[in-house]
Design a protein that fits this description.
By secondary structure, this protein is an alpha+beta fold. The protein is built from 5 helices and 16 strands.
Length: 241
């Protein structure tokens, strides 16, 4: 999202960074380790401004288009998903004024919390550096980022997700109908749902489905045979160089 903010500023948008706290798991609420963008548009009348949430880095539940932060409690079609913003009325996670991004989960047919942010909360470069250091370096069990392997490929009508050794490919088969605060539940189909059992299959899947080839070694400028053990060793070596 930092790169996205730089791109938006370069092409002339009025954008600011805002920190966010991930609250997917109520039993494991961490720090403000997520970063989003707020883009402001001048509506041209009475100094009114429209502000939109822009986020391109929230894994499987990343919004595919900007979300108007002035539309509260309104389901928003964001193909292939549905999102809404609700107020953190009890100021449970942030100071008063926080907004919670929720995504629609079709399996239990309900909205789930994603993260909470405050539209006017500033973030400094030092905040980003310290949080990046924590999520990339801390090896404790409470740090999801160093305990989990995740890659997501978003497509026109769905997504492919490789979560540790579990591969899942889903597509939305029916349209979403949003009428005010009423939502007609979309129908999803699961094309693939399997466990990747060998290292060879895992890295082949990364290469063929996700177009991510990890066998290339930049230091030797050659392609190498890769296993989960060698890949992990390479990651740890680069971390502590």
């Amino acid at each position: 999202n930092t790169l996205m903010q730089q791109v938006l500023k370069t092409i002339g948008f009025n954008v600011r960074a805002v920190p966010a706290r991930v609250i997917i798991d109520e039993n494991s609420i961490g720090g403000k380790t997520h970063l989003v963008s707020i883009v402001t548009f001048d509506e041209g009348t009475n100094d009114e401004k429209a502000e939109y949430l822009v986020d391109i880095g929230f894994g499987a539940t990343t919004p595919h288009k900007p979300i108007n932060i002035n539309c509260i409690d309104v389901p928003t079609e964001n193909h292939p998903d549905v999102f809404r913003l609700v107020q953190d009325k009890q100021a449970t996670y942030l100071a008063p004024g926080g907004l919670i991004l929720q995504y629609f989960d079709p399996k239990p047919s309900c909205f789930r919390n994603g993260y909470v942010f405050h539209p006017t909360q500033p973030v400094l470069k030092s905040d980003v550096i310290s949080n990046n250091f924590y999520v990339s370096q801390f090896l404790g069990e409470s740090n999801w980022f160093t305990q989990t392997r995740l890659i997501v490929l978003h497509g026109k009508d769905g997504r492919a997700m490789l979560h540790n050794d579990s591969l899942r490919v889903i597509r939305r088969k029916s349209p979403v109908r949003v009428d005010g605060d009423k939502l007609e539940v979309p129908y999803w189909t699961c094309d693939t749902d399997k466990v990747i059992e060998t290292d060879e299959d895992y890295f082949d899947t990364l290469s063929e489905l996700f177009h991510t080839d990890l066998s290339w070694d930049n230091e030797s400028d050659k392609r190498q045979v890769i296993t989960m053990k060698s890949f992990t060793s390479r990651v740890l070596e680069s971390r502590y160089k």
